[in-house]
Design goal:
With about 140 residues, the protein is mainly α. Helix content is about 80%, strand content about 0%. Helix 4 runs antiparallel to helix 5. The chain is globular, with a radius of gyration of 15 Å. The model has no long low-confidence stretch (mean pLDDT about 100).
Length: about 140
């Protein structure tokens, strides 16, 4: 069950990563400078999350979902084909972060039940950091 959770999270983070790239490339208006930089910061973190999840799967003897097709099939987050207004971008990211935190916390319970303390530590750390980012983005929205 943990392996499935890790694969799903990896896929979710790949979609989140690409959404952040989309927003980074396409944000416009008076918030451009602050959000362009923030989205880059966040997509670099998301890329690290993907790598951490893939490495945990590999350490558990599993093959991480490695193609975009596999990842899109597994992902619970949706791509954003639109280019929303800057504040809407942030609101959509806050919503995705809420979903990610819920899935991370669920996966922590599974990892704990399976006795995988490395996965517990990894996922708990991700969830804690995503909650902080979500709070900051909500504060940005007012």
């Amino acid at each position: 069950a943990l392996d499935k959770n890790l694969a799903l999270l990896l896929a979710d983070y790949q979609v989140f990563y690409q959404k952040l790239r989309n927003y980074h490339w396409n944000v416009k208006g008076p918030l451009f400078f602050s959000l362009h930089a923030k989205f880059e910061e966040l997509y670099l973190v998301a890329a690290e999350r993907v790598d951490g999840l893939a490495e945990r799967l590999a350490a558990r003897g599993q093959r991480p979902p490695s193609t975009l097709a596999e990842q899109l099939h597994l992902a619970r987050l949706a791509e954003d084909p639109e280019v929303p207004a800057a504040e809407d971008m942030v609101a959509r990211l806050v919503a995705d972060l809420g979903v990610l935190v819920d899935h991370l916390r669920d996966a922590v319970k599974v990892a704990d039940a399976e006795g995988d303390s490395a996965a517990v530590n990894l996922l708990d750390g991700f969830a804690d950091e995503e909650e902080q980012v979500s709070w900051m983005l909500r504060a940005f929205l007012g």
